[in-house]
Amino acid sequence: MTLPERIAALHRLGQEIRPDTNEFLAALMKRTAFHNGWFTPEAQRRSLDAVITEFLDGDKLRDWAAGYPELAAPAPRRPKTVGLVLAGNIPLVGMHDLVTVFLSGHRAQIKLSSKDPYVLPYLLRLLGEVAPATLPYFEIVDKLTAFDAIIATGSNNSSRYFEAYFGKYPHIIRRNRNAVAVLTGEEDRDALRRLGDDVFSYFGLGCRNVSKLYVPEGYDFEPLLEVFHEWKVLQNHTKWKNNFDYNFALLTLNKEAFHHNGAIILRRDEALASHIAGLYYTTYTDLGAAAQEINERSGEIQLVVTRPGTLPFPTVDFGHAQQPGLTDYADGVDTLAFLTTLP
Questions:
Q1: Where are the beta strands (DSSP E) in the chain?
Q2: CA–CA gap between residue 318 and residue 64 (Å, rounded)
Q3: DSSP-derived secondary structure letter, 112
Q4: Are 261 and 199 in contact (CB under 8 A)?
Q5: Residue 266 CB neighbour total at 10 angstroms
Q6: Structure confidence at residue 256 (pLDDT)
Q7: Domains of the chain (ranges plus CATH)?
Q8: Confidence class for position 142, pLDDT limits 50, 70, 90
Q9: Residues sharing a CB contact under 8 Å with residue 166, sequence separation 6 or more, in sequence order
Q10: How many other C-beta atoms can be found within 10 angstroms of the C-beta atom of residue 213?
Q11: Cα dist. 164→84, 149, 157, 167, 186 in Å?
């Protein structure tokens, strides 16, 4: 397939996967929610809407591809087989890798996450129906074999095994990362509400979810807790409530200081990855000190959320952490550049 044909196929898929009009897809989403309690219908719909809007839009795909002239080179390149080990922390989290491999003209050999085994295979099947020429580009397998390169996403622990097994191949291996937010105390309710979306969307399980706050010394948490109370509905979710109750009881028994509002627990901790239903924070004396610490820990941080212009490096505005576009590469590694330069 040519580059325009691949883009047209992806765009066509985006027009076919709206659960309001695709009853089979809606049923698969219900099955997924039963299989994995964290993947509620609302979370799946949010992820699917983002995929349609950001990853399967023809104009956005053409603009993205224009930055890589080699994709449209007339001389045929021998397609490679790229093994994909997909994560399962949020619904359809591996879709960007799939789109990237396909757009590059390579074939994807896919190891699904056991947490999200239903919807993505259907999307690939539907892609094959609307554009049969795409069928050779995707293969779902139980075990990766005969691949030329690897893109694997997992935990810090699993990444060590990935390095051992796949280190001799061209690879991208991703580890645990989290988003952090820097507050100055001047944020209004709207900014705090948008920050809440960065914290609570997908139950905070995504690598782009804010799990740690940097706040100035003497920061008043009451306005933040008042706004975050809007997410108290999460207490109706059994898994979230169990985590909240467990950590609340543990902190109380240990007589540790913390803030809470019934929706989330805030406590001081130097770690970046907070527990479920929790949010860590640390204080700073000046923004320069906060920026220095963030720079020193950049290998653990996926992105930084704050008001534009607050810090002297690229950041994301409040409310946009879980709105990645095609060029928002995980861990800052340009996946498409990696794929277009495979030997």
A1: 81-85, 107-111, 138-140, 149-153, 171-174, 178-182, 210-216, 259-260, 265-268, 278-284, 301-305
A2: 24
A3: -
A4: no
A5: 20
A6: 95
A7: 3-175 (3.40.605.10), 178-305 (3.40.309.10)
A8: very high
A9: 83, 150, 152, 173
A10: 23
A11: 16, 14, 12, 6, 47
Judge whether 85 and 152 are in contact, CB under 8 Å.
yes
Please check whether residue 19 is in contact with residue 48, taking contact to mean a CB–CB distance below 8 angstroms.
yes
When the pLDDT of each residue in the chain is averaged and rounded to a whole number, the result is 95
pLDDT of residue 35: 96
| Residue 75 pLDDT | 52
Dihedral of the alpha carbons of 304, 244, 184, 327, in degrees to the nearest 10: 20
Joined tokens for residue 114: 């056991």
- Tokens representing 117 are 């085994």
Confirm if 25 and 41 have CB atoms less than 8 A apart: no
> What count of Cα atoms within 13 Å lies in the side-chain half-sphere of residue 194?
16
Structure confidence at residue 74 (pLDDT): 63
**Looking at residue 53, what DSSP letter applies?**
I
Cite the beta strand spans of 27-104 per DSSP E: 81-85
Q: What is the pLDDT of residue 128?
A: 97
| Calpha distance 106→339 (Å, rounded) | 8
User: What band does 191 get if pLDDT is binned at 50, 70 and 90?
Assistant: very high
- What length does the chain have? 343
Q: What's the average model confidence in pLDDT over 74-88?
A: 84
Distance CA 149, CA 172 (A): 9
Q: Rounded to an integer, what distance in angstroms lies between the CA atom of residue 198 and that of residue 49?
A: 17
Q: Residue 208 pLDDT > 90, yes or no?
A: yes
Write out the H or E segment, with its range, that includes residue 97: helix 95-103
Tokens of 201: 């969307």
Contacts of 127 (CB under 8 A, 6+ apart): 9, 10, 13, 134, 138
User: Phi and psi (nearest 5°) for 57?
Assistant: -90, 125
Beta carbons within 10 angstroms of residue 115's beta carbon: 17
Give the whole-number percent of the chain exceeding pLDDT 70: 99
Distance CA 293, CA 300 (A): 11
